[in-house]
């Protein structure tokens, strides 16, 4: 029989791997993939996917809270001491973000049901107990419904929200689109398309024509074909029985080659093709910096897309460690950036990867950015981030959409950073009332007396002599777009409004 020490060693090795005893985990950023879903297009997650996500969330509860789903204490090298010791959700300790997409959002929520399972409520923390007001005047003590289901705050990003670039940096990004289009035209891509053509056509015999047309059967559709087969391999016994794992793996391998080709370019590491990965990497730094500086939130959990993950694999130089990183991360895979502290209060970042939610998937530590050490000092991490990431919306707008300002592709969130908008601001500071010009009132231009008009003042202010009323209408329209943007603009990073304490959550909620 195993003695308790042996058991706890086994638990330790399951929960994560090795670092010297004198580091402590003080915060984390987790970037995860959604779990099992129907074939695309869909906005659903399957019961299988929900179950796997919930169990995965529970594993992270063990890792960071040192508590099981049933609130039994468990040893974990990565326990974050400042987290609520009963595993109770507090808004100041946890922050989550996902794109406004059904499948990803549902996957995100299922994970949270494992990270923050239903609970009897705060049992020992007096401040939290008082702030939930369970007592009624007639002496009855109420309990929350659904066995104490926890209401966790989630931040879902609208595609046009200023923060959306962090999690979906490849969307609304003209230069990323062009880089991908160019990759399709490369010799490497075209060769693969030619040499695999017969193989794809041979799939005609085993793929139903009503789902996949013969003209669709080529390398250019490698990912969609793999997705169709992978989903049906899991869910459709008729189709599953017509295939075999060798065939599925062949289709998988080609789809990995396809996706890698359009995600990352080794000879142009920070090229436009990996803008999505560069953006989430910037987000990792931004949010971890807040965790480090403000010690709130302690856990950041973002859910995103596989294409961003392929890009991230290249930027972190994980593909140099294992060719497996040129492959699709499995459903529910997680990229983990743990913020560590040594006994002298120095900060480090340690990266771990877990390739999915099967029982055999382990947290594995990898060195990143070509380093040989799995523990990277905060300063070195920051240096690498500067080199490989996009940190601000302004930089993202420059990188993505330079040159498309006047086109319909130009995202409204970028308007404040456009030269057109800056020109409009300058006109305004010269006394031109763009809003009334838009409504047909040109009086602020004082056109009658052309020598002293605001128009010539504006020209003198560097706007250029070619500024006409037509141009002003364009500038004015953009200006109004900007006003809409600023109204919906939110704080980039959530920060607790008061120092870390049990009551900070109720204080933060005052405006509700
Ligand atoms: C007290 O009030 C609650 C809520 O109105 C009610 O459900 C409960 O039955 C009351 N208890 C007694 C003992 O009256
Ligand atoms: C990678 O970048 C190089 C240099 O910019 C370029 O010549 C090549 O076509 C790119 N490859 C792909 C697949 O985009
Ligand atoms: C791949 O080859 C097929 C068959 O020649 C062709 O129809 C398709 O356009 C090619 N795809 C790309 C992306 O070039
Ligand atoms: C499985 O796939 C076949 C072929 O496309 C289809 O006819 C059948 O309805 C599917 N079965 C289920 C349960 O979806
Ligand atoms: C797997 O399926 C392919 C395509 O139908 C077939 O050619 C191959 O012989 C099968 N392999 C095994 C081991 O059954
Ligand atoms: C790091 O985080 C702190 C706390 O949120 C913030 O004040 C500071 O501006 C951040 N630093 C940068 C460079 O963003
Ligand atoms: C790649 O993954 C396979 C299966 O998970 C594993 O057996 C193999 O050792 C891995 N290869 C490398 C180079 O890490
Ligand atoms: C993750 O799993 C997938 C599917 O099994 C595999 O193709 C990929 O190479 C794996 N990635 C790593 C880093 O092991």
Assign the CATH class of the largest domain: Alpha Beta
Number of domains: 2
Low-confidence stretches: 1-17, 458-465, 488-512
Residues in helices, as a percent range: 40-55%
Tell me the radius of gyration: 27 Å
Q: Please tell me the overall pLDDT.
A: 87
N/C terminus separation? 55 Å
CATH topology of the largest domain: Rossmann fold
Q: Please, how many helices?
A: 20
Tell me, what's the shape? globular
Order of helices and strands: HEHEHHEHHHHHHHHEHEEEEHHHHHHH
CATH architecture of the largest domain: 3-Layer(aba) Sandwich
Largest sheet: 8 strands, mixed
- Number of beta-strand segments: 8
**Beta-strand share of residues:** 5-15%
**Name of the CATH homologous superfamily of the largest domain:** Phosphoglycerate mutase-like
Quaternary organisation of the protein chains: single chain
Query: Which ions and ligands are bound to the chains?
Result: 2-acetamido-2-deoxy-beta-D-glucopyranose
Summarize the structure.
The protein is 43% helix and 10% strand. It has 20 helices and 8 strands.
Structural commentary:
It is a single chain. By secondary structure, this protein is α/β, with parallel strands linked by helices. It folds into two domains: 22-116 and 152-398, Phosphoglycerate mutase-like (Rossmann fold, 3-Layer(aba) Sandwich); 418-488, no CATH class. The protein has 20 helices and eight strands. Strands 1, 2, 3, 4, 5, 6, 7 and 8 form an eight-stranded mixed beta sheet that branches. Helix 9 packs antiparallel against helix 11 and helix 12 crosses helix 13 (306-315). The chain is globular, with a radius of gyration of 27 Å. The N and C termini lie far apart (55 Å). The chain binds 2-acetamido-2-deoxy-beta-D-glucopyranose (NAG) (8 copies). Residues 182-183, 186, 261, 265, 267-268, 273 line the site of one 2-acetamido-2-deoxy-beta-D-glucopyranose. One 2-acetamido-2-deoxy-beta-D-glucopyranose binds at residues 136, 138, 140. It comes from Komagataella phaffii (strain ATCC 76273 / CBS 7435 / CECT 11047 / NRRL Y-11430 / Wegner 21-1) (Yeast).
């Amino acid at each position: 029989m195993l003695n308790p020490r042996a058991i706890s060693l086994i638990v330790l090795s399951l929960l994560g791997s090795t670092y010297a005893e004198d580091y402590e985990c003080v915060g984390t950023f987790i970037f995860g993939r959604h779990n099992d879903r129907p074939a695309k297009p869909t906005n659903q997650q399957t019961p299988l996917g929900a179950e796997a996500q919930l169990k995965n969330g529970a594993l992270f509860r063990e890792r960071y809270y040192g508590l099981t789903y049933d609130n039994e204490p468990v040893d974990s090298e990565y326990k974050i001491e400042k987290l609520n010791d009963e595993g109770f959700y507090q808004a100041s300790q946890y922050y989550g973000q996902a794109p406004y997409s059904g499948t990803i959002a549902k996957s995100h929520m299922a994970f949270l049901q494992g990270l923050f399972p239903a609970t009897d409520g705060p049992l020992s923390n007096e401040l939290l107990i008082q702030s939930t007001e369970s007592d009624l005047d007639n002496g009855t003590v109420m309990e929350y419904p659904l066995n104490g289901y926890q209401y966790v705050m989630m931040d879902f990003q609208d595609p046009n929200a200023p923060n959306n670039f962090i999690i979906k940096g490849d969307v609304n990004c003209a230069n990323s689109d062009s880089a991908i289009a160019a990759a399709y035209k490369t010799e490497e891509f075209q060769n693969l398309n030619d040499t695999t053509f017969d193989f794809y056509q041979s799939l005609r015999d085993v793929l139903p024509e009503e789902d996949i047309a013969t003209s669709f059967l080529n390398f250019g559709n490698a990912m969609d074909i793999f997705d169709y087969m992978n989903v049906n391999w899991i869910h459709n016994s008729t189709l599953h029985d017509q295939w075999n794992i060798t065939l599925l793996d062949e289709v998988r391998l080609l789809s990995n080659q396809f996706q890698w080709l359009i995600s990352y370019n080794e000879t142009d590491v920070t090229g436009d093709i990996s803008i999505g990965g560069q953006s989430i990497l910037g987000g990792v730094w931004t949010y971890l910096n807040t965790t480090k500086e403000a010690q709130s939130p302690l856990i950041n959990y973002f859910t995103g897309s596989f294409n961003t993950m392929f890009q991230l694999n290249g930027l972190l130089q994980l593909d140099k460690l294992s060719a497996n990183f040129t492959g699709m991360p499995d459903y529910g895979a997680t990229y983990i950036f743990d913020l560590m502290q040594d006994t002298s209060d120095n900060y480090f970042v340690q990266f771990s990867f877990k390739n999915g939610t099967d029982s055999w998937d382990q947290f594995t530590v990898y060195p990143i950015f070509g380093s040989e050490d799995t523990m990277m000092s905060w300063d070195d991490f920051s240096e690498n981030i500067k080199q490989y990431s996009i940190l601000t919306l302004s930089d993202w707008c420059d990188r993505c959409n330079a040159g498309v300002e006047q086109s319909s592709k130009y995202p409204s969130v970028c308007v404040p950073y456009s030269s057109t908008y800056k020109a409009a601001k300058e006109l305004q500071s010269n006394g031109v009332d763009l809003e009334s010009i838009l409504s047909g009132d040109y009086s602020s231009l004082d056109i009658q007396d052309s020598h002293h008009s605001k128009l010539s003042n504006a020209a003198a202010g560097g706007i250029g002599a070619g500024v006409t009323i037509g141009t002003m209408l364009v500038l004015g329209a953009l200006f109004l777009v900007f006003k809409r943007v600023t109204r919906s603009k939110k704080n980039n990073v959530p920060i607790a409004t008061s120092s870390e304490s049990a009551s900070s959550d109720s204080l933060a909620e005052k405006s509700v």
